[in-house]
Write a structure and sequence with these properties.
This is Transcriptional regulator. The chain is mostly helical. Helix content is about 75%, strand content about 0%. The protein folds into three domains: about 5-60, 434 Repressor (Amino-terminal Domain) (Orthogonal Bundle); about 75-170; about 195-295. It is globular, with a radius of gyration of 21 Å.
């Protein structure tokens, strides 16, 4: 775990605000001992990722909710900057990307925060794809991208920021690297992050990567991602996750020639339209168009 001082103190603050005893938050010391808990909140010890997630479970918080509290009830500055970079990439605005690259680089030097180095790499990569898409990566950019990938592989817990970062570099990677990163993220969510809200975030991430694989004609990756999706524990009272799974099952059925009618995809699309879920309506229709154009 990083930033243990702030994390431990925040855990204790929430524990006290909720009126929980140390005995209660440690589940009668089945999660960690009282002495380990006190060392953790007093900034003198680390705890494993799975134990931390169990403490959050006792606090009835997701990792994203905890991160929001940790940063004084606002998005962390690095996450705000990532969102600005995502918007610039979506708009293919090279001028804005250069400004954001300069800002990320300045913040990296001023704060020595590693995540700003990651965002500098991301903006450099985006500018490469926009301005020189047919040229190989410069050696310095290749080295920086390798370092960013290794950062993600070293994670025990994947935050929403990490999934957003992975999404932005994903299509730049070889299929082998894509599989390695997906496997690392899946291991984290399957082993540590089984809270329903966390799983839902990862489910959405996987669905979007599967749809990109459809667009890029990567059948093996489609199958791998779908298999990961089927292992997730999802909220029982939410409608979108089973519709995502149904739509993706239709894609896999078409791919494996079990059923090439795409009926499951069409049924999921019809339901999101009835529910007026505009985002998934647009995404499903775009993917369906890709599938139908490929088959023609």
């Amino acid at each position: 775990m990083t930033n243990t001082i702030s994390i431990g103190a925040t855990v204790q603050m929430i524990q006290r605000a909720k009126g929980l005893s140390v005995k209660a938050i440690t589940d009668n010391e089945r999660i960690i001992s009282k002495s380990t808990y006190y060392r953790f909140v007093n900034e003198t010890s680390h705890i494993p990722a799975d134990r931390f997630m169990q403490l959050l479970g006792r606090l009835e918080l997701t990792l994203q909710e905890f991160d929001f509290i940790l940063h004084h009830y606002q998005l962390p500055p690095v996450e705000q900057l990532l969102q600005q970079i995502q918007r610039a990439i979506g708009a293919q605005d090279s001028h804005q990307l250069r400004q954001l690259q300069a800002r990320a680089s300045q913040l990296a030097k001023a704060t020595h925060a590693h995540r700003y180095d990651q965002l500098t790499t991301l903006t450099r990569l985006a500018l490469h794809h926009l301005t020189t898409p047919h040229q190989p990566l410069a050696q310095s950019l290749e080295t920086a991208l390798n370092a960013l990938i290794q950062d993600l592989l070293n994670l025990q817990l994947w935050s929403k920021y990490d999934l957003m970062l992975c999404s932005q570099i994903f299509t730049s990677l070889t299929p082998a690297r894509q599989t390695i990163l997906l496997t690392a993220a899946h291991k984290s969510f399957h082993k540590y992050q089984q809270l329903t809200d966390e799983s839902l975030t990862f489910m959405t991430f996987l669905a979007n990567q599967l749809f990109s694989a459809v667009h890029n004609n990567q059948p093996q990756l489609i199958t791998q991602i779908y298999q990961m999706m089927t292992t997730l524990t999802l909220p029982t009272k939410q409608l979108v996750p089973p519709l995502l799974l149904k739509f993706c099952r239709g894609i896999v059925d078409d791919l494996t020639k079990q059923d090439q009618s795409l009926d499951a995809c069409k049924q999921a699309l019809a339901i999101v339209r009835c529910l007026h879920v505009q985002y998934w309506d647009t995404v499903f229709q775009d993917v369906l168009n890709d599938l139908q154009s490929t088959s023609n």
